[in-house]
Amino acid sequence: MLGSTHGTFTTDLRARVVACGESPRTTVHGVTAAPGDQDVSGRPLHAPVPDLDRFFRPESVAVVGASDAEGRPNTGITRQLLAWAERVGARLVPVHPTRTSVFGIDCVPSVGALTEPVDLAVLLVADPLPVIEELAETKVRFAVAFASGFAETGEAGAAAQERLAAAVRRSGIRLLGPNTNLNAFERFREDLEGPAVALITQSGHQGRPVFTLQELGVRLSHWAPTGNEADLETSDFISYFAGRPEVGAIACYVEGLKDGRSFLLAADRAARHGVPVVAVKVGRTETGARTAASHTGKLTGADQVVDAAMRQYGVIRVDGLDQLQDTATLLARARRPHADGVVVYSISGGTGAHFADLATAAGLELPTLPQAKQDELHQWIPEYLSVSNPVDNGGHPVGDWRGRKIIDAILADPSVGVLICPITGPFPPMSDKLAQDLVEAAEATDKLVCVVWGSPVGTEDAYRTTLLGSSRVATFRTFANCIGAVKAYLDHHRFTTGYRSPFDEAPRTPSPSFRKAQALMRPGRRLSEHAAKQLLRAYGIRVPREQLVTSAAAAVRAAGLVGYPVVMKASGAQLAHKTELGLVKVGLTSASQVRDAYRELTEIARFESIDLDGILVCQMVGRGVEMVVGVTRDELFGPTVTVGLGGVLVEVLNDTAVRVPPFGEREARSMLAELRGRALLDGVRGAPPADVDALVEVVLRVQRMALELDGDLAELDINPLMVLPRGQGAVALDALAVCR
Question: Is the whole-model pTM more than 0.70?
């Protein structure tokens, strides 16, 4: 546990920010956006930010269904809301049709009878729909619906939730829930200082461990339990929290995303503000996805796409709630690093070696300390011990004045940004003195000092008082959580330094290629290889010299024009896998071979009852690295771009990387770096290096195509894309395209 320690496309982004006090915006393709803030398809390029100040700090609260009758569930909720309203300085108005007062406060019989403006209405009713419709006539800005039995229960519940959401849209009210809870109205400690963690959860119970961090001295500022997200969603709260000055990090427990694009826009806003977002996102497995859907009624999304989209916008994805606590707290409170170097310092050489091994495997940089620094450390550490990094003090120096000298000397090195001291178990007085020295050194530096307190007991005074009482030392209980949090910390600051939003580079107007390509689209149909290659050509993607012919004589003439040797392939909209049917002939070098190939290809097609638009006579391209580049549509994020090893390897190895447009050259190169077979592009076994620049250019042109043809293109598969030796380009040897 970390103790006290001081950054695609769907059209369901319903940013009704006018009701929340923001400037008017226009609606294009069902998306609300300010004029000039839209991409080529009319989708918003900036996250809408609902003004949630009056949700978290209302001046007046109406409790619909308030009760003070003993034994009633609403009574306990009303009592908690009364206490919360008193803490935030809000006036509470009970609403009940038959009661004259609740807990001594005068009731009104209905929301229609409210005589003064109300910021927040809390609905303690089984069916919130009639109340929402009644509230539409008032000036209530926010409502909370606790009721369950909606999308989490299946089709009938989903239909009921859509009726509720439609009523909310008509009303102009912003709704939290349904299927939410009282977590937003918890008691937050006000005696804690420093940057805070803001919490967003779709399951209240899963947020409880993060909320409990307050008992270890970690400040929390907000808790948004989003429930089924009929209206207000995780993205809304990320956007809002990213602009709050007290928020140092946002911690999320996400079961499903309602809208992929709104999530990316919110993550982009957080990255622009330098606010880290740490998320547990369930649904990595089919079982997890199914369970999440039954809980909140959300789409979980293809996990590879979710994972890539989060990395693309700087969202730090973790798996466990303990990791969520540790990573979010460290990122909220640690200062910006001066350097990426990590030094491991320990009492035991074995401990240091073990930790250093794990840290290096995780990608942390453990620089060798300069010889001058090692000589300095050997003033206090015996010569026979290694101080190059990790630094082994041998134990005895920590018990006297030398311990602090060693720590200060390490922190003074300019290559060091983080000092980590794993203490695997209490060994008084050594461990007590070491903990105190680390705390005092941390107070005197702006560099990050981390301690791993490995004792399973956790009741030791050095841990409970010295370490957790520090506002500057990051204290962990496991090696893995410490390493993961430190890596996330360094990665986050690298990511946000000079951050340039992908949305800033998104095309605003269609290119000339778009107009050419749109004329080739056939709604609801698959394009033949020939037509698909014309689509690629429209976007400047190189294809082989080729001609489509409908006779053997024309095939011979075409071969002469294309140049021997040639490849001949059947071309038709029905054909997806030509090779398996024998509909590809390679390496033809004479007119007689071309005539024979034409007859054989057409006979096979006739036997298989395949309609052809002709036979392609193609240039035979030299050898290179076979890659695949494609476009598919994700249920949450819209068009996605995939690159990987092509040919038969794409199905055998499944070595691919995916991104959500828009993205630039750096992201395209990052995709290639993720591939296990990346070394093939550098040249192996005497093969020359491939033209990586040309491959990157194809990826960028395909992502432009995905953006501009979002409404027309369902799928694109360039396989293989032959990446020729450096300087010779890349050629799309085959292509498949499916229109929407």
Answer: yes
